[in-house]
């Protein structure tokens, strides 16, 4: 039986941003609930299949694909296959599953944000980049770590300290509000990549960002 949606209570904080809650479910439909009042992140709590998990964990780091591009969501699945070809990752059922999954997530984000164009960043990470808790300077971001340590969440308490507010597991998907989320609510939920430099761990990380107009992009940066 599918788990019902559950909202993690927001931490009381006078004057804090409104969108500080995490909504989570075992159904992918939860991602569409990012627009609900007070929700800073919607998380699809899904499991990797044992066969897929074994396959992706066994890929040599040098064969992990890398892709950074601006694309229509309808072309992203082909783009992932092209990146796999360039990295030398052999074709097969599991590679097809990976590419089709990323393509499906791109479709979900396009529908949620009503924008077919997005920036994809899909790559192996071995550093401590983005290790500080932060809010992305974007309208929204879809995240999925296919391999390695998960994204972590935090909230700022009344003393300005960061309090941990949960994490994602490998294979799970989240849509997060960014600093320029459209509407009146300001995002207050923070997130970060786990520090892994020097541990030998490798993350295979996906980020999908809806494209913004050039003038808006300049304002955000």
Structure commentary:
With 221 residues, this protein is of the alpha+beta class. The protein contains 4 helices and 11 strands. The model is unreliable at 1-16 and 214-221 (pLDDT under 50).
List keywords for this structure.
three-stranded antiparallel beta sheet; 4 helices; globular; 221 residues; single chain; alpha+beta; Jelly Rolls; disordered N terminus; disordered C terminus; 11 strands
Briefly summarize what is shown:
With 221 residues, this protein is of the alpha+beta class.
Q: Which CATH class is shown?
A: Mainly Beta
Question: Unreliable segments (pLDDT under 50, ≥5 consecutive)?
Answer: 1-16, 214-221
Percent of residues in helices? 10-25%
Q: What is the assembly state of the chains in this entry? A: single chain
Structural class by SSE content:
alpha+beta
Strand content: 25-35%
Query: What is the 3D shape?
Result: globular
The number of strands is: 11
How far the N terminus sits from the C terminus, by CA atoms, comes to 45 Å
The number of helical elements comes to 4
Strand order of the largest sheet: 1-2-3-9-6-11-5-4
In sequence order, what are the helices and strands, one letter per element?
EEEHEHHEEEEEEEH
User: What does the average pLDDT come to?
Assistant: 86
């Amino acid at each position: 039986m599918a788990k019902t949606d559950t909202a993690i209570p927001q931490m009381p904080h006078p004057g804090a941003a409104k969108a500080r809650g995490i909504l989570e479910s075992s159904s992918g439909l939860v991602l569409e609930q990012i627009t609900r009042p007070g929700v800073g992140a919607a998380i699809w709590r899904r499991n990797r299949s044992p066969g897929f998990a074994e396959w992706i964990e066994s890929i040599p780091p040098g064969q992990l694909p890398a892709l950074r591009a601006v694309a229509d969501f309808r072309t992203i699945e082909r783009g992932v296959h092209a990146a796999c070809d360039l990295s030398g990752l052999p074709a097969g059922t599991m590679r097809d599953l990976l590419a089709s999954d990323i393509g499906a997530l791109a479709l979900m984000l396009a529908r949620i944000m009503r924008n077919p164009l997005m920036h994809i960043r899909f790559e192996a990470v071995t550093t401590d980049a983005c290790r500080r808790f932060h809010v992305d300077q974007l309208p929204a971001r879809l995240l999925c770590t296919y391999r390695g340590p998960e994204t972590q969440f935090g909230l700022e308490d009344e003393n300005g300290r960061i309090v941990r507010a949960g994490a994602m597991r490998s294979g799970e998907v989240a849509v997060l509000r960014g600093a320029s989320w459209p509407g009146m609510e300001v995002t207050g939920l923070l997130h970060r990549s786990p520090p892994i430099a020097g541990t030998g761990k490798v993350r295979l990380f996906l980020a999908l960002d809806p494209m913004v107009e050039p003038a808006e992009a300049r304002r955000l940066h």
